[in-house]
Amino acid sequence: MLQLHMGDESGILTVSGLNQQIKALLEKKFPFVWVKGEISNFRVPASGHFYFTLKDAQSQINAVFFRAQNRYLRFLPESGMQVICQARLSVYEPRGEYQVIVEVMEPLGAGQLQLAFEALKRKLDAEGLFDPARKKTLPGCPQNVCLVTSPGGAAIRDILKVLQRSPYPVTVTVFPVAVQGSEAKFQIAEAVSAASKLCWRYEWDVLIVGRGGGSIEDLWSFNEEIVARAISACSIPTISAVGHEIDFTIADMAADLRMPTPTAAAEWVANRLEYFHRELHASRDRLVKGARAKLEQLRFRLKYVEGRIRHPKSRLETLRLTVDDRLERLTVGIRRRLEHEHLSWEHLRARLLYQNPEARIRKSCEEVNGLRKELTLHQNRILDAYRLRFQKSLSRLEALNPLSVLLRGYSIAYRAADGKVLRSSTETQPGERVMVRLAQGGLECLVEKAVNSDE
Q1: In whole angstroms, how far apart are CA 198 and each of 146, 262, 282?
Q2: 32-55: per-residue pLDDT in tens?
Q3: d(Cα 387, Cα 222) in Å, to the nearest integer?
Q4: Closest Cα partner for 27 from 84, 71, 93?
Q5: Chain centroid offset of residue 27 CA
Q6: Helix, strand, coil proportions of the chain in percent (round to 5)?
Q7: Which residue in 280, 276, 133, 136 sits closest to 204, CA to CA?
Q8: If you placed Cys at 142, which of 52, 205, 306, 326 could pair as Cys (CB 3.0 to 4.6 Å)?
Q9: Taking a C-beta distance cutoff of 8 angstroms, is the pair 60, 53 a contact?
C-alpha cells in the first residue's frame, strides 16, 4: 500500500496542472506537422469554425479549423474527403483531449480550385441559375455592344480588330476592369451591374464579358460567385468569352451565350450583323419583286377594264337627260304638294275660327258678373242680420253691466285689507279702512261706526 505524508504533497499535480504540462510539452515538440487523412463527423456550428475528425484505417484524431483561417478555403470540406493539413498539436485542457489545430488544408487527388469550381457549380445549378429557361434571347442586329474586359489586354484588341473589319456600323462601349487578381471579381461584377442599370439610357444590344487565355488561377475571377450572379441578373443579353477553346468557367454557364474566345464573340457579332443585313436585303428584294408582280397584274386588269368601258361623253349625255327629267318631275311634285298643303291649311284655319273661344269667354264673364252681384247682395243681408244680433247682445250686455248701476248714483264698498265686497254693515268694524268704488273714481274711508238697518 502506497502511503503519502504531508511532506510529500509538493510532488502531487492537479488534473489541470497535468494537462497544462502535457499541452506545453506537445506544442513544443510538435509546433507544426503535416498530416493526411479522411474527414469524418464534419460539422460547422454558428461560430463558423470547422470541427471534424481526421482518421485513417487504424486511428483518428480530433481536429478544429478556426474561422479566421478557413474563410480563405476555395472549397467546402465534407465528410469522406481525403485532405492533407498543416496543423499544430494541442490539448483541450477542460476534457484532457489532444487535437490538431489546422492552419492550412489542401484536398488530396483533385486540386483545390477544381473542387471549388465543382462546389460552386453544384450550388448555382441547384438554385436554377444555369436553367436555359432563364436565358435571354440574343438580339438579331447587335449594333450597340458593351464590353467588360481589361483595357490593355489582348481580348479588347482582338475584338476591336474583328469589328473594324466588318462593313456594318458597330458602336462599342468599354467598361475597363481588372481580369485577374484579388480585386478583379469585384470590378467585373460592379461593371456588369452598372451596365445593366445604364442600359435604358445607352440601349446596348449585347454585353460581352471576357479576357484572353491563361492558367486556371488567371481565369479564376470568372469562376467567382459574385461574377456569376451579376451576369445572371444583368438585363442585357450577355456573352461570356473567357480564355481559349478548352477553358470553361462559371461565367460561361451563367451567361446567355458562351463563346470559346473573345475573337469568336466578336465574329459572332459581325456574323449576326451580316446575316441580319443579308436577310434584310433579301426581304427587300422579295418585297420589290412582289410589288412589281402586283403592279403588272393591276396594269393588265386596268387595260382589260379600259377596253370594256364606253366613252364617258355618251354616258354624260344620258345622265344629263336623266337629271333634267328628274328635276322636272321633282318640280311638279313639289308644286302639287304645296297646293295640297295650302288647302289643308285653309281647312284647319276655318275649323280653328269655328272653335274660337272668344264668345264662350264673353258669356262666361257675364255669368260671373251676375253671380258676383248675387253674392254681394246675399253677403250684405247676412251682415245686416249679424249686425242686428250684435246690437241686441250689446244692449243686453249693457243692461247686465254692474258699472251701469254706478252711473245711476250707486257705489260698491269693499274692505281695503282683503278686497272683499261689503254687503252688510256687520261685515266691518269701526276703525277699519274701506274702499268705495264710484262710477268715476273711488273713495278711501275709515269706518267710525257701523249702523244696522233696524236702527
Answers
A1: 11, 23, 35
A2: 788 888 898 999 999 889 999 998
A3: 128
A4: 93
A5: 64
A6: 50, 20, 30
A7: 136
A8: 205
A9: yes
Q: Could you tell me which of 347, 367, 349, 371 has the C-alpha nearest to residue 359?
A: 367
**401 in a domain, yes or no?**
no
| Final residue in a domain of this structure, among 257, 277, 297 | 277
Per-residue pLDDT tens over the stretch 295-331: 888 888 888 877 776 667 777 777 888 888 888 888 8
Note the Cα 218 to chain centre separation in Å. Answer: 45
H or E stretch at 148: strand 144-149
> What's 251's domain CATH number?
3.40.50.280
Comparing CA positions, the residue from 206, 212, 272 lying closest to residue 241 is 212
Is 435 within 8 Å of 418 (Cβ atoms)? no
Nine-digit cell string for 242: 473567357
Cell of 191: 461593371
Instruction: Using alpha carbons, select from 74, 76, 104 the residue that is nearest to residue 224.
Output: 74
Q: Grid coordinates representing 41?
A: 463527423
The verdict on 87 and 217 lying in the same domain is no
82-92/60-65 β-pairing: unpaired
Contact 100, 88 (CB under 8 A): yes
> Partners of 40 in the beta sheet?
53
Q: Residues 6 or more apart from 149 whose CB is under 8 A from it?
A: 155, 156, 159, 174, 176, 177, 179, 208, 209, 210, 211, 262
- Any idea what DSSP says for residue 187? H
CA-CA distances (angstroms) from residue 145 to 49, 190, 207, 355? 46, 18, 6, 97
Angle between helices 225-233 and 184-202 (to 10 degrees): 10
Q: Extract the residue ranges of the chain whose pLDDT is less than 50.
A: 1-7
Q: Domain total for the chain?
A: 3
